[in-house]
Amino acid sequence: MLDVLKRFAADQAAATSIEYALIAAGVSITVIAAVQAVGTSMKDRFVDVSDKLATAGR
Q1: What is the mean pLDDT of the chain?
Q2: Is 38 within a domain?
Q3: pTM check: above 0.85
């Protein structure tokens, strides 16, 4: 049983998986923030174009 615990403590695969998960989480947060910023900007742009088209024929 002691040998199993020693091998488990020496195993680096779990630490590597956790590191990759943290990197993926950081990238995901960055992408979500960027998409939200661009989405808000694009929404404002579309509303502006829609308003101009609605008043263009008058």
Answers
A1: 87
A2: yes
A3: no
Residue type, 46: F
- Residues for the chain: how many in total? 58
The one-letter amino acid code at 38 reads V
18: amino acid identity, one letter: I
CA distance 8 to 6: 5
Q: Does the residue 14 lie in any domain?
A: no
- Number of structural domains found in the chain: 1
Which range marks the domain in which residue 38 is found? 27-57
Nearest to 25 by CA among 15, 17, 14: 17
What does the alpha-carbon distance between residue 51 and residue 55 come to, in Å, rounded to a whole number? Answer: 6
